[in-house]
Amino acid sequence: MLNIKNVSKTFNLGTVNEKAALKNINLMLEEGDFVTLIGGNGAGKSTMLNCVAGVYGVEAGNIFIDGKEVTKLPEHRRAALIGRVFQDPMMGTAASMGIEENLALAYRRGQLRTLRWGISHQEKELFKELLSSLGLGLENRMTDKVGLLSGGQRQALTLVMATLIRPRILLLDEHTAALDPKTADKVLELSDHFIEESGLTTLMVTHNMRHAIKHGNRLVMMHEGHIILDIKGEEKMNLTVEDLMQRFGKASGEEFANDRALLSE
């Protein structure tokens, strides 16, 4: 479903600030894979997601989604294939528009625009049913402006929007990092529900080792632009934070030193 082949990305190429963020990366996700992606600051995690989404171009390599090469496609041309939830709850929604209006925009993602105006009764019923499944009472606030919602409510809404039209690949970019622990756990619970219910192929960046181990069927760790660990199956199910830190040290030759990941353990 996602195939990243020999991809390299360098920022500020040819300048004194040149930084190689991805170095000949190879990663393949089969349909239905839920991969958690973890690593220290500057490891290349978010850069990889941005390259898949088309935010950044790449100097070398190829990216395929559902067998279609998208390496040269701009971000908006990939929109019909990708669902994404960002770290910042303010992104991914239009704050000045109502909840149902935001959902309607997501429902029409990748479609040709027409002069038809408004949201049909059938669509409203669908949106209400989806919001009801969140257990946050948003189904009774359909016309409220999204800017009035809390961070957790916005992330839950963005998750619904990202999965409303089943994407070929779902990208979750530290989508709980800005939330308090209780709200983060709720959003992750909702994420698991939507991913499992629709069988979504998912790549989730997280700084939290506990979350990386608990969620998904594969764990990929990056270090200085390289993939150094790819753990799956029973091996991942039996993994502990201590095991992961030891394996990181063995693979990288360094001690894992990311305060955010260690403190949130």
Give the arrangement of secondary structure elements:
Layout lengths: L1 E10 L7 E11 L4 E6 L5 H9 L6 E6 L2 E2 L12 E4 L13 H9 L13 H12 L18 H14 L4 E5 L7 H18 L3 E4 L3 H6 L3 E6 L2 E7 H5 L3 H12 L6 H5 L2
Number of helices: 9
Q: Based on DSSP secondary structure assignment, what is the total number of beta strands?
A: 10
Parts with pLDDT < 50 across at least 5 consecutive residues: 259-265
Major sheet: order of its strands? 6-7-8-3-9-10
Q: Architecture of the domain at 2-81 and 167-263, according to CATH?
A: 3-Layer(aba) Sandwich
- Helix fraction by DSSP (H/I, runs of at least 4): 25-40%
Q: Summarize the main sheet.
A: 6 strands, mixed
Overall mean pLDDT stands at 89
Radius of gyration: 19 Å
Order of helices and strands: EEEHEEEHHHEHEHEEHHH
Strand content: 15-25%
What is the CATH topology descriptor of the domain at 2-81 and 167-263? Answer: Rossmann fold
Salient structural properties:
265 residues, alpha/beta, Rossmann fold, six-stranded mixed beta sheet, four-stranded antiparallel beta sheet, 9 helices, 23% strand, globular, disordered C terminus
Describe the model.
The protein has 265 residues and is an alpha/beta fold. The chain has a domain of 177 residues: 3-Layer(aba) Sandwich (Rossmann fold). It contains 9 helices and 10 strands. It has a 6-stranded mixed sheet, sandwiched between helices. Strands 2-1-4-5 form a 4-stranded antiparallel sheet, covered by helices on one side. Helix 4 packs parallel to helix 5.
